[in-house]
């Protein structure tokens, strides 16, 4: 399945009828809280099978995944996925490896959040995105608010960093 920038892969609250393996592209995952706050809490990249929290047992989608660029995903029947998990001994190791990779990604993200200055955090995020963005600018993929959420600063700080980098 091909999704273009802005198209939704899954929505917060959707049932777990399918899992998806990201073949190419990037997705941002946001969560709308009861108080109306929208928070960007994850980036999906090639090689991931998602939703992560449904790899072993089904659970409704925790957030909404939106394509950040032209992206390709393989749709996987959740019923077939869980059948394989029950019947094929190697499936559990496959899932453990997927989750381990996501934990390592999250450790890197936490490292990026604890680096000194906002400028240094911005540089690390930009470098990470450059590995997946195929020449697309970070600001073409994310809003200043979203960039700020990823590096732990306010939108105004992002605006200032962008102004000063030109």
From TrEMBL:
UniProt KW Signal keyword: no
GO cellular component: cytosol
SUPFAM superfamilies: cAMP-binding domain-like (SSF51206)
Database matches in PANTHER family: CRP FAMILY TRANSCRIPTIONAL REGULATORY PROTEIN (PTHR24567), HTH-TYPE TRANSCRIPTIONAL REGULATOR ARCR (PTHR24567:SF74)
Domain Cyclic nucleotide-binding residue range list: 1-85
Keywords: Activator
Domain of life: Bacteria
InterPro entries in alphabetical order: cNMP-bd_dom (IPR000595), cNMP-bd_dom_sf (IPR018490), Env_Response_Regulators (IPR050397), RmlC-like_jellyroll (IPR014710)
GO molecular function, one term: DNA-binding transcription factor activity
Organism: Paenibacillus monticola
Protein name: Cyclic nucleotide-binding domain-containing protein
CDD domains assigned to the protein according to its UniProt record, in alphabetical order: CAP_ED
């Amino acid at each position: 399945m091909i999704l273009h920038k802005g198209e939704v892969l899954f929505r917060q609250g959707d049932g777990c009828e399918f899992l998806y393996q990201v073949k190419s592209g990037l997705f941002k995952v946001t969560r709308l809280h009861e108080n109306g706050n929208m928070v960007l809490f994850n980036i999906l990249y090639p090689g991931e099978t998602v939703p992560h929290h449904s790899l072993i047992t089904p659970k409704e989608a925790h957030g909404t995944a939106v394509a950040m660029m032209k992206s390709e995903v393989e749709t996987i029947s959740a019923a077939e996925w869980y059948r394989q998990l029950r019947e094929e001994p190697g499936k559990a190791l496959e899932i453990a490896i997927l989750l381990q990779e996501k934990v390592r990604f999250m450790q890197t993200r936490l490292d990026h959040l604890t680096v000194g200055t906002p400028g240094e955090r911005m540089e690390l995020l930009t470098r990470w995105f450059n590995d997946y963005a195929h020449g697309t600018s970070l600001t073409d993929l994310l809003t200043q608010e979203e960039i700020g959420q990823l590096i732990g600063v306010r939108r105004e700080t992002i605006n200032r960093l962008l102004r000063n980098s030109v």
